[in-house]
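Request: Give me one sample?
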Amino acid sequence: MKLRWLGLLLKNSNLVLVETLRRTNFEPDACADSYRSGQAVRYCSPNPDSMRMYSRRSIASLVALAALLAGCGGGGGTTDPEGFTHKDGSLASGDDTLTSGEFADEFSVSAQPGQWIEVVMTSSEVDPYVILKPPSCPQTGTCEQQVDNDDVQSGDTRAFVFHNATEAGSWQIIATSSVAGEMGAYDVAYRVVDGGTAPATAGVQSAANGLNASGTLAAGDKTLQSGEYIDNYVFYGNAGQSVTIDLESSAFDPYLILFMPDKSQEDNDDFEGSQSHSRLEMALPQSGMYRLSATSYAPGDTGPYTLVMSAGGASAPAGGEEAVPFEK
């Protein structure tokens, strides 16, 4: 068993210390179905019978115990100049788990419709994966409204979400890992900003700045379920913004996919019949985070490619900073 510090509560003008026994095995009624990467998974929480409350302790005892727990990496939370609240934590044996085997911790943030929630999970010890669930997500059953993310960019140690809060209330942040059973320390940073505010997370690009990338599909890359290797890139765009995206390769038949903030997609195989060029031209339908996927028409194809995005008719700056793939 692992003892987890949850906090100090104010009750009848007396400080009450709440501790929770977090167990490796949970009763079936302590689990709830959810969605992760389009597949149903189950999120498990501690059985209520494992919760104990200790009341009317002296303030001195509470302070001493809080200091002891803080020394064990409890992470009380800090706020940085950009308005991010930082929470330290650790994925460990005995934590809550997804049915797919990943350990998970929960945090919450309040937001109003029209505001945006930005979440960044950082770790050098696990491959971070973050899930954001709206207040309407049921305690049981699936939740198609949630958004999740693996890496900000290829080989990165961060997971990132920037999402429009369409509901008022408490949004649930789930910090977990990309691989089942991973354990280690992490930092979760989150903030709520007004609409029209661009994300502040380093490495997240804007459609207005364009994109000019060179990459290679190779063995060891992540793959689609049908077997094609894939590199992913993310950018922030505004509704109505026009973009032109070109994927070219002389080594394989390129296939281009653009995923929208609402999880719908547009794709193209052969632009004007060319088997070395794919293109998408469109006005972005929504404001939010978009994901570009550079892949091949045939499973297992490998080789170099170029990916260029221009916005509003302006070409991406030549010789600028090269974009790095975002993997999911």
Q: What stands out?
A: Residues 1-75, 313-328 have pLDDT under 50 and may be disordered. Residues 59-71 form the longest helix (13 residues). Helices lie at 59-71. The radius of gyration is 22 Å.
